[in-house]
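From the shared-data thread, chain only:
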Amino acid sequence: MNKEEKAQIIEHLTGKLQEYPHFYLTDTTGLNAERTSALRRACFEKEIALVVVKNTLFVKALEKVEKADEQIVGILKGTTAVMFTQTGNAPAKLIKEFRKKSDMPLLKGAYVEECVYVGDNMLESLINVKSRDELLGDIIALLQSPAKNVISALQANGGQKIAGLVKALEERGA
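Structure, as tokens:
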């Protein structure tokens, strides 16, 4: 591979790192051609971009986008397949589902919600990571809950409580 080809690959990987906020580093060496094809198909269906990378070129791409964390660089050994995704926990769920039929792929590490996760033992934690939108939805639901309780209490019994409140306020003002 000459310098020009390497530069093109680095640019391609840099583009993927800029396009996708999350990525998983996996080891797929134990998968045969049939299982690899099934993994690629599953990734495509879940809108996950799967790319087998040369570790040194991936490190250079990480450096270009300022994501070259020493923990990530440290796990880039051997064969590495990168799963790029818009949804932080989608690859973790896919890996768990895929492992029902085999022990692969192994999770080397992940960069999700601007945090680094290292090791296959982090798979369950990554499955439970909520996206930014999910967290905002939870916060909004929590904030709406007390207001809904007050409104439903005031509307109970055909508005009699509201009339009683208005009458009590009028009496205090008089």
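Helices lie at 3-19, 33-45, 55-64, 70-75, 90-98, 123-127, 132-155, 160-173.
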